[in-house]
């Protein structure tokens, strides 16, 4: 699965421009499902059919990553930009920006008397142009860029940009590969625009109309020096979500995940995230309501150019989802 993770993580795919990720996912999952299609919002839906009287279960992982969008080009060819999703100016200093056509720029910033005052509106992207005309020949207003970073595997740890949430996409693909027979009809949904408001999941869930939902995403950890207290660590297993700012997970789904992990001896930990949200926030509010849970991959340095996950946790997530989908849901 390491090659799959690396390929996914290094793809260009900011919110609203997930097409390359979608194509790769379709190619990867098509051989192991019965049907694959793309909905009007660009989300990829892969269906694995089970028993005729089985429950309809939707698994969701978002394809998009955080990034920036060009808002202006000044007379010297420097690009001003706004954020796509939650991004801190301090994580951008000196990083490289990658545009869809491969153009590379460097994030710079104006002189500030106090670094605490650094905001995105004090920053720019330098693509090496010497004039507005030269820059405009390469980049247009409204073009999006992501952080340019290689994904590396170091021991059992994976480090790279866009672990949030290409790692969740990898988990869904691998789960689909391992799931041989299920009494349920399973929808593996790879959603768009999660980073700007859980948008793809909202429309996909309305269309699929599932009986149950499970979001698969990253979550923060509390295992680094002087980190905010949180009972989630790298290497201790799949994180079964209890709550974040978008959802309180449904006890039926949450308990089924816990019971399955215990029965199969799969390493797990309980997650209470005091900020942020996932696609579960949209899924559970669809139509008249969908009982929804979430399985998370613990991740250090979320929304930075070097997010870190543990391969053992990834494996635990795949094992847990495969096992729970093999069970009949009452």
What's this, in brief?
This protein is α+β, with helices and mostly antiparallel strands and 330 residues long. It has 2 domains: 229 residues, Aminopeptidase, CATH 3.40.630.10; 81 residues, Beta Barrel (Elongation Factor Tu (Ef-tu), domain 3), CATH 2.40.30.
The N- and C-terminal alpha carbons lie at a distance of 32 Å
Radius of gyration: 20 Å
Number of strands: 17
Per the CATH scheme, the topology name of the largest domain is Aminopeptidase
Task: Please bin the fraction of helical residues.
Answer: 25-40%
Q: Which structural class should the secondary elements be placed in?
A: alpha+beta
| Averaged pLDDT | 97
Biggest beta sheet attributes: 8 strands, mixed
Low-pLDDT residue spans: none
Number of helices: 8
Question: Would you mind describing this structure in some detail?
Answer:
The chain is α+β, with helices and mostly antiparallel strands and 330 residues long. The protein folds into two domains: 2-65 and 161-325, Zn peptidases (Aminopeptidase), CATH 3.40.630; 67-147, Beta Barrel (Elongation Factor Tu (Ef-tu), domain 3), CATH 2.40.30.40. 25% of the residues lie in helices and 28% in strands. It is built from eight helices and 17 strands. The chain has helices spanning 2-10, 19-29, 132-136, 163-178, 199-208, 251-264, 280-283, 311-325; strands at residues 35-38, 44-48, 56-62, 67-73, 79-84, 96-99, 104-109, 123-126, 144-147, 152-154, 157-160, 185-191, 212-219, 238-243, 268-272, 292-298, 307-310. The protein has an eight-stranded mixed sheet with strand order 1-2-12-3-13-16-14-15, with helices on both faces. A six-stranded antiparallel sheet has the order 5-4-9-6-7-8. Strand 10 (152-154) and strand 11 form a beta hairpin. Helix 4 (163-178) packs across helix 8 (311-325). The chain is globular and about 65 Å long.
């Amino acid at each position: 699965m390491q090659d799959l993770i690396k390929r996914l993580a290094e793809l260009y795919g900011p919110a609203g421009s997930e097409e390359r990720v979608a194509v790769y996912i379709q190619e990867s999952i098509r051989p192991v499902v019965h049907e694959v299609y793309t909905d009007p919002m660009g989300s990829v839906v892969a269906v694995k059919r089970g028993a005729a009287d089985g429950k309809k279960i939707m698994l969701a992982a978002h394809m998009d990553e955080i990034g920036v969008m060009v808002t202006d080009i000044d007379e010297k060819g420097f690009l001003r930009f706004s954020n796509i999703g939650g991004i801190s100016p301090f994580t951008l200093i000196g990083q490289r920006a990658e545009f869809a056509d491969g153009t590379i720029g460097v994030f710079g910033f104006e002189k500030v008397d106090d670094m605490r005052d650094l905001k995105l509106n004090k920053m720019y992207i330098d693509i090496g142009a010497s004039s507005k005309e030269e820059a405009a020949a390469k980049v247009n207003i409204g073009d999006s860029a992501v952080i340019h970073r290689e994904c590396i595997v170091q021991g059992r740890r994976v480090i790279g940009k866009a672990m949030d949430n290409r790692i969740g996409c990898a988990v869904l693909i691998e789960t689909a590969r391992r799931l041989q027979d299920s009494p349920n009809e399973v929808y593996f949904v790879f959603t768009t625009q999660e980073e700007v408001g859980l948008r793809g999941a909202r429309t996909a869930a309305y269309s699929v109309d599932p009986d149950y939902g499970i979001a698969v995403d990253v979550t923060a950890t509390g295992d680094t020096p002087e980190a905010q207290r949180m009972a989630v660590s790298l290497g201790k297993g799949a994180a079964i979500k209890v709550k974040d700012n978008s959802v309180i997970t449904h006890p039926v789904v949450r308990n089924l995940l816990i019971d399955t992990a215990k029965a199969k001896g799969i390493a797990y930990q309980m997650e209470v995230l005091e900020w942020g949200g996932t696609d579960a926030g949209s899924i559970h509010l669809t139509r008249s309501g969908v009982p929804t849970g979430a399985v998370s991959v613990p991740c250090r340095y979320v929304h930075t150019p070097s997010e870190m996950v543990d391969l053992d946790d990834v494996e635990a997530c795949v094992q847990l989802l495969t096992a729970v989908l093999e069970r009949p849901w009452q």
